[in-house]
Specification:
single chain; 191 residues; mainly alpha; 6 helices; flat
Length: 191
Amino acid sequence: MDTLNAPSAADAAEPSYRGTAAEHLERLRALRETIPNFVTPSDGRATNRLSHAASVPPEFVELSAVVAKKTETLGVGGPNSARMRDQLEFADAYGPVADEYDAIAQLLRHSIVAARNNAGSDALLVYKTTRHLAKRPETSELAPSLADLSRLLGARARRTKARLNAAKHKAEVEKARAGATAAADETATKP
């Protein structure tokens, strides 16, 4: 039996995170159906296109509703005052709900990073211990596992180094552009 790949009794006792996560997703998706006026954006810029009119002050909307009500009584067509008030009430009532969802999402993302950190720290400790043990004759059977771990960790290190080099290059290019722009501005201002 391969003891390196066999699940332990502790692993079998772990909760099914995939199962509980799927349950949470199902409940969250079901919540969408209960929110009145819930709109799914048509594309990535849809919210930006709405933001201009959405940013008018609530007092402006309320006064416009009063004026619209007057035009309705005069028989002149225009926006429905009841609809404007309803939409404003919805926005005011559900704003804190969206804020709470954002806070929960931010905390959940932090929890995910913390869990990955814990798993990664434990894995690095196992790697360090395996490096030491693989050198001993009585635990030399760990050498193939060490080679696999080193290969995987090496790929991570190469990707990190490549990202750091790319960021450094980008910073140098931006610095050079800023210097060139400053020099051009200085030349343009000299008589």
